[in-house]
Amino acid sequence: MTFGPDVHVDPAAWVHPTAQLYGAVEIAAEASIWPNVVVRAEFHAVRIGARTNIQDLVMIHIGGSTGTIVGEDCSITDHCTLHGCTIGDRVLVGIGSTIMDGCEVGENSIIAGHAFLKEGTIIPPNSIVMGAPGKVVRTRNNAAANALNAWMYARNAEAYARGEHRLWSDPAFLVEQRAEHARLQALYG
Fold first, then answer.
1. Rounded CA gap, 88 and 106, in Å?
2. pLDDT at 1
3. Domain 2-139 classified CATH 2.160.10.10?
4. How far is CA 51 from CA 1, 35, 47, 117, 152, in A?
5. Which helix (H) or strand (E) holds 127?
6. Domain spans, the chain
7. What's the pLDDT tens digit per position in 130-152?
């Protein structure tokens, strides 16, 4: 892994060896940074919240007048681009999506795969967004499902740190996952 001198990674976070992090980057506890992620923060800051996963080949950069902030319990899935935007807690950003400068995505939302949010787009909490340009197509509280996905990645990162790459197929993990699902459903309704 390549870290610049201004990068701060919590000791309880996991960063894959191929990740490249430069500038004012903060990675919170239990967050995970997966293969070939690139994060650059030459002027403004990039902050990744607790238990958030940044999946394979994601690119995170700052905007001309905005940093990039990703909340807690988020999943930023494969091949996404986040550029100078703010992502609330418990958000899932689908594969191949792009979220541009000044965008704000409210908590408990889902951004569908390959969506494109143009500069300055504001997405209210509990939204499902699709399209290019992205538009809210439905409203639903996705907190439990999104938090469960983030929990699964946090547990998977712990396994990867131990050299275990098949945690999700372990029957004991499946029991633990069902219990966590029930807990999150009770917590978020």
1. 5
2. 62
3. yes
4. 20, 17, 12, 24, 9
5. strand 127-130
6. 2-139
7. 999 999 999 999 999 999 999 99
Q: How far apart are CA 19 and CA 135, in angstroms?
A: 31
Cα–Cα distances in angstroms (integers) from residue 49 to residues 167, 172, 176, 178, 182, in the given order:
23, 28, 23, 24, 23
Model pLDDT, residue 129: 98
Which regions in the chain score pLDDT beneath 70? Answer: 1-2
Determine whether 163 is exposed, middle or buried from the number of CB atoms within 10 Å of its CB (0-12, 13-18, 19+).
exposed
Of 45, 19, 47, 51, nearest in space to 32 by CA: 51
- The answer to whether the pTM exceeds 0.85 is yes
**Which residue from 111, 113, 170, 179 is spatially nearest to 151, judged by alpha carbons?**
179
Write out the two tokens for 80.
Answer: 């996404």
* Nearest Cα residue to 52 out of 82, 72, 81, 25: 72
Sign of the dihedral through C-alpha 8, 29, 69, 78: positive
- Give the contacts of 53 (CB within 8 A, at least 6 positions apart): 31, 32, 34, 74, 75, 76, 150, 153, 154, 157
Adjacent-strand bridge partners of 46:
25, 68
Look up residue 135 and give its amino acid. Answer: K
Residue 21: how many other CB atoms lie within 10 Å: 25
